[in-house]
Amino acid sequence: MSEPVHSDAHQLAQFGYKQELHRTLGSFSSFAAGFSYISILTGMFQTAALGFLFAGPAFAWFWLVVLFGQFMVALQFAELSAHYPLAGSVYQWSKQVAGKAWAWNTGWMYLCAQIVTVPAVALAWQVILPQISPKFQIVGSSANSGNFFTSDFAENAVVLGLIMVVLTTTINVAGVSVLSRINNVGVASELIGAAGLVILFLIHANRGPNDVLTNTAGTGSGHSWGYFGALLIGAIMPLYVMYGFDTAGSLAEETDDPSRRAPRAVLQALATAGVMGFLLIVFGTMAVSDDLYKDPTTLGLVGITKDVLGDTWGNVFLIDCALAIFVCCLAIHAMSVRILFAMGRDNNLPGGSRLASVSGTRRVPVVPAVLVGVIAMAILAFNIYNQYAFEVIVALGIIFMYLAYLGVTIPLLQRRLAGWPGNLPSAKRGLFSLGGAAIITNVLAIIYGASMAVNLAWPREEFYGVKWYQHYGPITGIAVVVISGLVLYYGYQRHRMEILAEHRAEALASPEPQAAPGTL
Fold first, then answer.
1. CATH homologous superfamily of domain 22-501?
2. Which of 35, 71, 358, 487 is most enclosed, with most CB atoms within 10 A?
3. What is the pTM of this model?
4. Is 387 helix (H, G, I), strand (E, B) or coil?
5. Which of 150, 117, 182, 174 is CA-nearest to residue 398?
């Protein structure tokens, strides 16, 4: 059953908001937003070495586990993005299915995830650029440019990261049209580069996939849970790569016909990245030379690429990867801006009016773009004083995101059990729907998300550092964010939550009823 034809602005007014952002994104741009956030070249070239180090080549099996689990989450988000095409995705979806109080805390966690991930990705240039040319090792020795746990790596990573954040801030201030054009070019380059690497790795294969997928490299010894314990640590690599697919939903108010385009974009972005990523891991390990394969725990995709393709062609693909990293950071920065804008116009953050203010010509929230850049620069500085800060920053970004995702999937299950979306107006039932698979996929999404959040937060000396404040860093970070959020909400925010007058639609249509107060 087709939905009655209404303008996107009219649809937005049903939720109480007036149209302020430019709707310039089409189908490819919507897909590109989600794909560039996931950015397999960014996450894989940045962290594949950690997967090999802690679990050997066989850690590729856990890539499939994460892909399956994240796809269960993505299915829920695809359905929500069809019914609630609003800027801020996770924050807005939780508000619609669970009410304002729950939404504020979910949005706070989601906001922290976004802002922490900006500097985490900005650090990735250190993994790539010094391998292209030692001139990019501005601070310290290029001999230590690839070693995560040296001061040379940490300090130079901050320098390169600061340059990247300045650039992403400038482009986000320039407006969504400029951002989308750069993003589209970057995604097209990444798709071509990733596909090219997959094909070239397969052509140069030296061993079969069975050799790769059964090679644990002895990493299970010393773990109380054997290889499964090693695999849980190696899982941090795919967990870091495969999230952010909700970006297409967060840019809904800048997308044409978002109720139909956003669901497809969410699923296509994750599926494309997931399949390509798995093939890169397996085919890359199949193609690497015997000399390097003797100790696969020392492998990484940077080394594999140069080993297989040589320095010249290897550098060509590394340059493409460096571009993908920049576009990924740009997309994450843009997501951070949208969540600040969405919460600001609901008066859900201090200074909400300024956070939600849209520039007159570019139609972009300028204050959030600058604020995210400043905070990201401050976080980057910690990497200088603690070489393990990279692992903690990466882990916190993923944990906050997984907790925010649970802030949607848990109340959504409750709404499903009460009849959602069958109790929606009949005009909305022609949109993307999970039908009879809704409950089981929702349950699987919750189980997967909760178990991975626990796995990421588990205090591990071998990954986070031997000092107590290092391996308890993720747990401490979670506690700080949760407690500060509760203090801010109950001490200041809870009685101020309403759509600011300047962002309110002139004629409010009746939005869908939200969850009853006290439901969660």
1. Amino acid/polyamine transporter I (1.20.1740.10)
2. 35
3. 0.86
4. coil
5. 117
